[in-house]
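Predict the 3D structure for this chain.
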Amino acid sequence: MDTSESVLGHYAAQQLQQRIGSPVLTIGRDVFTRAQLAKVSCFNYVACSRLQVALDDLRVKSVQDVFDRIPPMALAVPGVGVIALAVLGAAFQAKKVGGGSPLEAWVRRHHDGQTITFGALKERAHVADAPRAATAAKSARER
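Done. Predicted structure below.
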């Protein structure tokens, strides 16, 4: 990216240069910049942020830890969608975790060798949460 100070001004050029090299995704001790994710065709930085928040809540140690220990159902939470899952796949690729199709390998690892779509997992999570949500709503009405 051309960040000419004579055209953009010193402050703007400096801010752009700093942003280019700063992390956009941190998964435990693994840190990814825009350039690293671009090498695996990942450009959705909003999804990076949403994925990072979800993984921070799970207290993961690294990308390898996510692959080994975190089931896909754990990420079937509001705010995390298929694009965030694709970002996770890009992180797997960037760290060379999971082989040729790391998302498929990750899902199969945690679902007895079967592949299941993330949409189906989110639906299962929604159905599983429905009784709790109904109970909470009833309690709120009774108050």
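The mean pLDDT is 88.
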